Amino acid sequence: MHIPNDVKNSKVTIINIQFSRRAIFLSIKRFMDIFIALIALLVTLPLMVVFGVLIILESNGSCFYSQTRVGKDGKLFTIYKLRSMYIDAEKGGPRWAQENDPRVTKIGRYIRKTRIDEIPQLINIIKGDMSMVGPRPERPYYIHKFNKEIPEYNHRLTIIPGLTGWAQVNGGYELSPREKLEKDLYYIKNQSIWLDFKIILKTIKIVLSGNGAR
């Protein structure tokens, strides 16, 4: 069947427009990520120092915690956090985080509720490993596990992971991996600067209220 040239050209034009819009969106998003992360890092640096000291006073070990996570297209990177658990929290192997987790210290419980433990990830954002908004990055162990249980789970890896996301402000710990995936896929499908702002504002509200959904 012969397809007229004008139809072919119109399809190419539409694809080019969509590609251009996508490129513009990603450029704006990256600029926003760096701008917000730099300001937030300067503003929250005193908090990081204070709670870093409190973490060391409550339990032995470094106040910082690093872990390998899976980013866009399966790329591995090191995520940084203020330590909220005891040093030997996973000596029995990886465990899915939950509400009222017994592995969490007293200081850790507070910094989790207020998300202060996530402040060091602003460095990950500046480096380009993460964005302000996107699906939360998971460990390789859980990516492998959930890929077997939920075939679509790998779709989360099509964009850069985020410090906060649609799943984190709409249920957090209360959501199952499948429910979190549904929220993440909604974000991936409906990405926009406006939606990012909405999620950031909801995150600020959660931090200020201490509800700690994540």
Provide the descriptors you would attach to this structure in a database record.
two-stranded antiparallel ribbon, 9% strand
Number of H- or I-type helical stretches: 6
Strand order of the largest sheet: 1-2
Question: How many strands in all?
Answer: 4
Morphology call? globular
Low-confidence stretches: none
Helix content: 40-55%
* Biggest β-sheet description: 2 strands, antiparallel
Gist of the model:
By secondary structure, this protein is mostly helical. It has one domain (25-209). It is built from six helices and four strands, in the order H-E-E-H-H-E-H-E-H-H.
Report on the architecture of this protein.
The protein has 214 residues and is mainly α. The chain has one domain. It is 51% helix and 9% strand. The strands form 2 sheets. The protein has a two-stranded antiparallel sheet with strand order 1-2.
Q: In terms of topology, how is this protein built?
A:
Layout: H1 5-58, E1 64-70, E2 76-82, H2 106-113, H3 121-127, E3 131-133, H4 140-149, E4 162-164, H5 177-189, H6 193-209
Parallel strand pairs: 3-4
Antiparallel strand pairs: 1-2
Helix pairs in contact: 1-2, 1-3
